[in-house]
Amino acid sequence: xxxxxxxxxxxxxLAAATLGxxxxxxxxxxxxxxxxxxxxxxxxxxxxxxxxxxxxxxxxGLELLKLPRGFEYLTSGWTGDPMSDGxxxxxxxxxxxxxxxxxxxxxxxxxxxxxxxxxxxxTVLVRNHEVGSLNGAFVTPAYNPAAGGGTxxxxxxxxxxxxxxxxxxxxxxxxxxxxxxTPWGSWLSCEETTLINGxxxxxxxxxxxxxGIGDAKPYKEMGRFSHEAVAVDPKTGWVYETEDATPSxxxxxxxxxxxxxxxxxxxxxxxxxxxxxxxxKDGTGVAYxxxxxxxxxxxxxxxxxxxxxxxxIAKGGASFARLEGAWYHxxxxxxxxxxxxxxxxxxxxxxxxxxxxxxxxxxSPNAAVLNNPDNICVSPRGGIVLCEDGSGVEYLHGLxxxxxxFPFAENSVVIPAGGVRGKAAAPGNYTGAEWCGSVFxxxxxGWLFANIQSPGITFAITGxxxxxxx
Length: 470
What we know:
- By secondary structure, the protein is mainly beta.
- It has helices spanning 3-17, 26-31, 103-111, 308-314, and strands spanning 52-55, 65-68, 72-76, 93-99, 122-129, 149-157, 162-173, 176-181, 186-191, 196-197, 200-201, 205-209, 227-232, 239-243, 251-255, 265-272, 287-288, 291-295, 323-329, 332-337, 347-352, 357-363, 373-378, 384-388, 395-399, 405-411, 414-415, 428-429, 435-440, 447-452, 457-462.
- Helix content is 8%, strand content 37%.
């Protein structure tokens, strides 16, 4: 992109960046909504943002996405792209979070020649790679030298609309699917597996500083299970964890020391009522006023020991169907069940931390409304973004203020027969690849970042957010 092109490209992004954070939004309306899920409709497009149209990538010139008019994007961190540390970008992009850079990172990046004039507008992304191979770690220190999963980190200038730097930040792990940011500025990267490779057990949570490289030490007291996402209560420092399995539990980890998870703590599983309740088929509006927690006696079970979820169920723990995304917002945790609900097309739960109550915020009545949601995030303006991981063409979805679902971005990634110059992506149709890692920038919410897992691309999207609920 030329400087002239970038200035034009940024007009919309800068306008969006000046917006204040709305006091209310779709979540406020949805929290009060208890209508039957059958009344929900999937709009063909947002009534505010308008229909989707093919939009060219400012990086490659390809029409990789369909977006509402006025929205634009650039791409970076394609699988195989060289990073600033000389390594190649791993594939299978997944969960992601955005952070305000530390002063040390700003100074180091400026000294390294990336330029510091706009460092007040930088945001840092830490990105998971759901690599399950045992062909060797891509960075050291590595937890398991044979394991190919981990994380990479990127710096983005929200004013220039430009990726500045990238590096490998965690290695030697397996299937790093999602995770979550902490209030103290780190990323908790979660392994979605219970693989045992020789003397190495997998299925743990690892912490990665946003401004450096993780020490690759697993937090074993946070549980060994098929982890998906986490959300941290900033008031208590307690970490809420989801499990991508059926049955799965919803867990919380109460650390001995707030902000220092490595010191250990207590892992607990949610209970609903007085017996081992099953939420699989619950629809929109179902409420759970009787929430409790039971301790997990052995959070790090071996192959021949009772799994974490079975330990919890034996004590009356509640069962969920494939819990995936989780997000903290305004005193509540939003939790996604990918295959729960009356039709098995997905549920979103809202857990109120203050009242210790939970409800089904909505359950998809059919695939035409929402097809197996996965990652979730909440915008600074109070809107929900859902990443779809179902069948057919995949979408990023938003919610209207009355709870209607609409497609915001369509995956239109088709790599032509000749490939893309400078990219390792193989020719082919990737429109069925899942969306993941949606997150707004840490500066002012003028940019939405998201990944398409295959062929492995990170998108930075900007536009007139003020026109709608996102």
